[in-house]
Each structure stands twice: as structure tokens, then as C-alpha cells.
Amino acid sequence: MVHPATVNIVEVLSQLLRALKPIAEVNGLLLHFEAADREIVISCRPDIIVHDVTDLVCNIISYTLPGNSITVGILKEKEGLQVFITNTGVNLYCVAEVTRNCRHKIVVTGSTENKQTRFHFNLPCNLREERKIIGPEAMPAGNKAIPDFYNEIRKRLRSHFSNADTLVAQLSIMYPNEAAFLQKINAVIISNMDNIFFDTSVLSREMNMSRTALFRRLKPLIRQPPATYIRSIRLHRAKELLETTDISVGDAAFKTGFQTQSHFSKAFAESFGFLPSSIRRRNKAATNE
């Protein structure tokens, strides 16, 4: 059980935003942090706050097109504190998926006319005057209230930005025409899954587009180069095969268009953080139990 900790909540959020900022920038978004005070000491559950802010920001990144901005801030109120997140470019008021996994009660307001949304949750906690503060670098091992930012974010990004079905589902809510385009892209890639010669050039010919036109239309949707996206779909399919069948690592590599098992294993480890052979060992262990 994680107990409440006395923390400088401004520093907690500031550290979190430093970890999230490069991800926003890669996706063509600006990420800002606003706080009137440099230090606000409170007794709270910082792990839950970090979880919810991370979840909200990652979801907002998923739905917001490049060229816009996201702002995270904290306000003092009579009842306690308010943590808020705003975005420009799209009104996400009706997109329930953005707040679905949050543990705090999230209040959402949106403006279709101004294409922006505001999310906030309240912290009904007493402001503290103690000077003994637990910061991100000083959390005791037994009460690690702030998780490993990068591992948490990496895990969420795989779900938000790499899974083909997730991307289509997200686009279908706000941009149905682009969702249909991406669905066709995915169908072409999947139909060529075992073709080791399939690449961006082949994809552009199949779509009757120039490589330049394909890149310009596709990259804002998938937030990565088309070649990286093709490899991601191959790797997710290989992972699914290894987890649900008795296929060998070499056969999984061959069926998903990799020329060599060594190249496949290296790409797999870079994407998922572990070797494909570990899935086979885990499956064998489960069978023997």
C-alpha cells in the first residue's frame, strides 16, 4: 500500500513534464507547464497524480494534430489545489477515451468554436508548511510514489502510437476520412506481411501515390516515418504469433517479412524491451506447469 507523502507538487509535475516534453515535440506539439509558485508543499498521493497526468497528456497527444499545444498547470484554490491540462487544435469534450483510465474525477470543458479543451481535477488536500519534502530523487525505496517516468511513458506510447487498430479507432472519432485512408494503408501492409521486399516504395505504388505525397499525408497520422510504421506492424504481428501459437522465432521472423532471425530479434528487442525468445521460453514453462 502506498501512503500519502509530503511533496513539493510543483517539482513533481515539473519533473514529469520534462520527461513528456520530448514525446510531445516528436509529435509536433508544444508542451508547457504553468505554476505561479515554485513550491507548493502538500500531503497527497503523488503516484496517482503522476498516473493521471501522464495518461491525460498521452491521450491528448494521440488526438491532437501537429502544430498545436498542450499546457499543464496547477492553481491554488480555497478548497485546495486544481491540476489542469488544456489543448489547442481540437475539442475533445466528447472523447471519453481521454479520461477513461484516470483515477481522479476529471472535469472536462470544451469549445468547438475555438477548437480547444480543458481538463482538470481537484486535490482536496491541506497545504503544508513542513520543510522536509520528498522529491523525485529522494523517495524512499519502500514508498516509491513517483514511478519510472520513461518506462511508464514508453509503455503508454506503444499502446497509443504503434498499434494500428488503436490509431484507426482514434482517428475515426474526429477524422473519419483519415481513418479510412489509414485503414487502407494497414490492409496493404498486412496483405504483404511476408514479402521481404515490401517497403515504402511498394506501398506508395499500391496506393497510387508518389512517395512524397504518401509521406506528407501519412506521417501526421502515424507520428513516425512510414518505414518505421511498416516495421512496427510487422513486429506486432510477430509478437502476436509468438504469444498465441507454437511457432518458432525463425518462422515468426520469416512470416512477418524479416530476412534474418538476428535482424528480427534485434528489432524486436528495440521495440518491446525483451527478446522474442523469452516469449517462447515463457510459453514452454506455462505448458510444463
UniProtKB/TrEMBL annotation:
<dbReference type="InterPro" id="IPR018060">
    <property type="entry name" value="HTH_AraC"/>
</dbReference>
<feature type="domain" description="HTH araC/xylS-type">
    <location>
        <begin position="183"/>
        <end position="282"/>
    </location>
</feature>
<keyword id="KW-0805">Transcription regulation</keyword>
<keyword id="KW-0804">Transcription</keyword>
<dbReference type="InterPro" id="IPR018062">
    <property type="entry name" value="HTH_AraC-typ_CS"/>
</dbReference>
<protein>
    <recommendedName>
        <fullName>HTH araC/xylS-type domain-containing protein</fullName>
    </recommendedName>
</protein>
<dbReference type="GO" id="GO:0043565">
    <property type="term" value="F:sequence-specific DNA binding"/>
</dbReference>
<dbReference type="GO" id="GO:0003700">
    <property type="term" value="F:DNA-binding transcription factor activity"/>
</dbReference>
<dbReference type="Pfam" id="PF12833">
    <property type="entry name" value="HTH_18"/>
</dbReference>
<dbReference type="InterPro" id="IPR009057">
    <property type="entry name" value="Homeodomain-like_sf"/>
</dbReference>
<dbReference type="InterPro" id="IPR036890">
    <property type="entry name" value="HATPase_C_sf"/>
</dbReference>
<keyword id="KW-0238">DNA-binding</keyword>
